[in-house]
Design a protein that fits this description.
Helix content is 29%, strand content 25%. It is of the alpha+beta class. The chain folds into two domains: 69-180, Uridine Diphospho-n-acetylenolpyruvylglucosamine Reductase, domain 3; 183-379, FAD-linked oxidases, C-terminal domain (Vanillyl-alcohol Oxidase, Chain A, domain 3, 3-Layer(aba) Sandwich), CATH 3.40.462. Bound molecules: flavin-adenine dinucleotide. Flavin-adenine dinucleotide (FAD) binds at residues 10, 42-49, 53-54, 63, 83, 105-107, 110-111, 113-115, 117-118, 120-121, 164-166, 170-171, 290, 380, 382.
C-alpha cells in the first residue's frame, strides 16, 4: 500500500486525492480490497484516459502486479493474460509464442484491462477494437465474488461487460483471440485534404489499416496505409512526430495572426517529408512515442459521416482556434456486438482532436462537441466529452440492459464514484 495523496492522469488534466492506492499481488488481495477498502473503489490501468474514469477519493486499485502470460494455445492463437499487463510487454509475450495482436492503437503504454475498459482501438475498416478479441474474462465482482465468463457459454454477458469503464468488477485475467505473427508493409504520404475527403471511402477501404492526420491550417493530410506482407523486413525510419510537433508549435506561436503564411510554410515542410515505406514485424509498426502532453476528444461517427464532420471541424478550428496546432487523427473501426462499445452495430469513422496540455482545452472541445453530436457521434469513453446517461440512452440501444447487468454485478455500488454516478444517471 502507498499513501499517495495526489494522483493525475497522463495529461495532468484529471487530478484526484485517493485515500490510498493499493497494488495487490494476488487474487485474495483483490477480493480483500473489494470487500473492505474504503470506497469508492476505482481500478486504474496506466492512467492514460482523459476522462476522470479512474479518479476516486476512496481507494484506487492498481493491477500493476497482475502482469504476464497465464497460458496460450498455439493452434488456436489464443492467449490468457493478466489484466495489468501493459500492451508493450503483451506484444513481446505474444510474439514469443508465435501470436500477434490483429491491430493496435497509437501507443503501447496502456494496461490491457484499461484498453478494454474504454474500447481502445486502432484503425481498419474490417478490424475491431481490442475488446472484440475477448474470448473469456475473470473478474472480482462488487461483493468480492470471483466470476469467470466465456464467450462460448456467456455470450450476452461478455457483450455486456466487455467494455466496462471499470464499473463491472475488477478484471484480473482475460483470454484474447489473436492471430499468428505477421508482417506489415507501412507507407505514409501527403495529399491535399480535398482529395482525401473526396476519396475517403475508397482510400480508407483499400488497405488492411488506413488512417490519416490533417495538419491544421495546411490544407493537407498525411495518409498512413498498412498491408500484410511476406517480404523481408526493412528498417523503420526514425520517428519525426515530436520534431514535427515542435515545428508546428513554433509556427503557431509566431504566425498566429497570419494563417495564410503559416499554412504556406507547413505545406512546404510537408512537401519535403520523405514518403515512408518499410516492412516490419507487426510489433514494430503500430506504436509511437508520444512525449508532448495533450488533451484529446475523440468521437466515433457513422462511417459515411466522417468527411462532412471533419470538414466542419477543420473550418471551426481554422476560423476560431488559431492556437490549435496538433494534427487531427481520422481512423475507421469495424462494427461489433458489445453493448457499451461506441462501435456497437456501426461501421465507424473516428475523429480525434488534440489540444496542448499547457493550455485550457475546454473552449475548443466545447465548440467541437456539438458538431460531432450532430453527426450522431458516440464519444470515446477515455477521451473528453460532456455526455450523461440521458444522452447514452439514445446513443446505445442496449444501455439500459447494460445498466441492469452492472447493478447485478455491483449491487452496492462499490465501483461508483461521483463521476460514474453522474455518467450512469445514478443519484
Ligand atoms: C498518448 C495517448 C495515446 C492514445 N492513443 C489511443 C489510441 O490510439 N486509440 C484509443 O482508442 N485510445 C487511445 N488513447 C486512450 C487510451 O487508450 C484509453 O484511455 C485507455 O483506457 C487507457 O488505458 P489505461 O491502462 O491507461 O487505463 P486507465 O485510463 O487507467 O483506465 C481506463 C478505464 O479502465 C478501467 N480499468 C483499468 N484496468 C482495469 C481492470 N483491471 N479491471 C477493471 N477495470 C479496469 C479503469 O477503471 C477505467 O475505467 C490514448 C491515450 C493517450 C494518453
Amino acid at each position: 500500500m502507498t499513501n499517495a495523496m495526489r494522483w493525475t492522469n497522463w495529461s495532468g488534466f484529471v487530478a484526484g486525492s485517493p485515500q490510498q492506492i493499493l497494488t495487490p499481488d494476488s487474487l485474495d488481495g483483490v477480493v480483500e480490497a473489494v470487500k473492505t477498502a474504503p470506497g469508492p473503489l476505482r481500478v486504474v490501468g496506466a492512467g492514460h484516459s482523459f476522462t476522470p474514469l479512474a479518479r476516486t477519493d476512496g481507494t484506487m486499485l492498481s493491477l500493476e502486479k497482475f502482469e504476464g502470460l497465464v497460458s496460450h494455445d498455439e493452434a488456436a492463437a489464443v492467449a490468457r493474460v493478466r489484466a495489468g499487463t501493459r500492451l508493450g510487454s503483451l506484444m513481446q509475450l505474444l510474439q514469443e509464442v508465435g501470436q500477434g495482436l490483429p491491430n493496435m492503437g497509437d501507443i503501447d503504454k496502456q494496461a490491457i484491462g484499461g484498453a478494454l475498459g474504454t474500447a481502445t482501438h486502432g484503425s481498419g475498416r474490417v478490424l475491431g477494437a481490442y475488446h472484440t478479441q475477448l474470448q473469456a474474462t475473470q473478474f472480482v465482482d462488487g461483493r468480492g465474488g470471483l466470476r469467470e465468463l466465456t464467450l462460448e457459454m456467456d455470450r450476452d454477458l461478455i457483450h455486456a461487460t466487455g467494455v466496462a469503464l471499470g464499473s463491472f468488477g475488477v478484471l484480473t485475467e482475460v483470454t484474447l483471440k489473436n492471430i499468428p505473427t505477421y508482417r506489415l508493409h507501412r507507407r505514409k504520404w501527403v495529399l491535399p485534404i480535398k482529395e482525401m475527403l473526396a476519396q475517403f471511402e475508397p482510400m480508407m477501404g483499400a488497405h488492411r489499416s488506413a488512417e490519416f492526420y490533417y495538419v491544421p491550417f495546411s490544407g493537407h493530410a498525411q495518409f498512413i496505409a498498412s498491408d500484410l506482407s511476406d517480404t523481408p523486413v526493412s528498417p523503420r525510419p526514425p520517428e519525426e512526430d515530436e520534431a514535427g510537433l515542435a515545428t508546428l508549435r513554433k509556427l503557431r506561436t509566431a504566425l498566429r495572426r497570419a494563417p495564410w503564411l503559416r499554412g504556406l510554410i507547413i505545406r512546404s515542410v510537408m512537401a519535403r517529408l520523405p514518403a515512408e515505406d518499410y516492412v516490419q514485424d507487426w510489433l514494430n509498426v503500430y506504436a509511437s512515442d508520444r512525449r508532448t502532453r495533450f488533451n484529446e476528444m475523440e468521437y466515433h461517427l457513422p462511417f459515411e459521416e466522417g468527411p462532412r464532420a471533419l470538414a466542419e471541424i477543420i473550418e471551426l478550428t481554422e476560423k476560431r482556434f488559431p492556437e490549435v496546432y496538433f494534427p487531427m487523427e481520422v481512423r475507421s473501426v469495424a462494427a461489433d456486438e458489445f453493448w457499451l462499445s461506441p462501435f456497437y452495430r456501426r461501421p465507424t469513422c473516428s475523429i480525434a482532436i488534440h489540444h496542448d496540455a499547457a493550455n485550457d482545452p475546454l473552449p475548443f472541445m466545447r465548440a467541437a462537441e456539438p458538431i460531432f453530436r450532430r453527426y450522431g457521434g458516440r464519444p470515446h469513453w477515455g477521451k473528453m466529452h460532456s455526455l450523461k446517461a440521458t444522452d447514452f440512452e439514445t446513443l446505445y440501444p442496449r444501455w439500459r440492459d447494460a445498466m441492469d447487468v452492472r447493478r447485478d454485478i455491483d449491487p452496492q455500488g462499490r465501483f461508483v464514484s461521483p463521476y460514474m454516478a453522474d455518467l450512469f444517471g445514478l443519484k
